[in-house]
């Protein structure tokens, strides 16, 4: 009997890229002999609802065509379900897919990972009962995220660059209390980011050393630096070459609490809530094709 795959497509991801690549993926999966049930979402709530129906249906696997927002929604249901999950990147950021090494601009190649059937279990961060698939941002980066989300132009990652420049004009270091596995650290900083995977903001390797299956959260603290130094650090984040910078601290733990007054945390590119947040880890909670 052929494997039965539910293909869940967010047509709005990547400003319509999801709608464009959905049929490409369906054809590729079907050509490989898989039985494909296509589900197209009409609103954000559909992602979780459909994922729950798919899990209950006894399908062999699910593939999600979307960006980090869609994966975040799907992961809430797929976590700890044991159902293998394929990521077909269609968003603007695609940081979860980047962290996994899924091809970003070749939907047929991403579909081939589902066909191949090779799976691994990856960790998720958890805040209250919410699973997070990439990084929690709490500081300068969350202000940039908020501003970039509010911008309608430009379309791709250039939004983050413009938002960074705009926020830099007025940003001042923040006072933090960061508690990692019960150990309290008081420090001023530009940002504190916590991730299971390395990336946010469309390929910025803020937690460059993060291993997505080591059962640990990676914590990056950028201590106070001049505006120019922070600006110069952003291109380094794309390559991960900020690692080792004297003002960049990288730590690890199983539980992390971040406190700083007046800051809203962002996770998987969307607002999570005001600090303080307590972040835990769900080791190996998501089973993914790779
Ligand atoms: N029809 C729909 N189906 C699912 N989600 C939708 C739909 N319309 C709007 N949304 C919203 O779109 C958001 C963005 O989707 P997604 O994150 O996949 O794309 P993106 O923002 O382009 O990519 P990225 O997050 O990687 O930058 C979702 O979090 C969801 O809230």
From TrEMBL:
The keyword Lipid biosynthesis applies. Residues 1-131 form the DAGKc domain. Its EC number is 2.7.1.107. PROSITE patterns: DAGK. The keyword Methyltransferase does not apply. Pfam families: DAGK_cat, YegS_C. It comes from the Bacteria. InterPro entries: ATP-NAD_kinase_N (IPR017438), Diacylglycerol/lipid_kinase (IPR005218), Diacylglycerol_kinase_cat_dom (IPR001206), Lipid_Phosphate_FormReg (IPR050187), NAD/diacylglycerol_kinase_sf (IPR016064), YegS/DAGK_C (IPR045540). GO terms for molecular function: ATP-dependent diacylglycerol kinase activity. Keywords: ATP-binding, Kinase, Lipid biosynthesis, Lipid metabolism, Magnesium, Metal-binding, Nucleotide-binding, Phospholipid biosynthesis, Phospholipid metabolism, Transferase. Gene3D superfamilies: 2.60.200.40, Probable inorganic polyphosphate/atp-NAD kinase, domain 1 (3.40.50.10330). Its cofactor is Mg(2+). PANTHER family: LIPID KINASE YEGS, SPHINGOSINE KINASE. Belongs to the diacylglycerol/lipid kinase family. This is Diacylglycerol kinase (ATP).
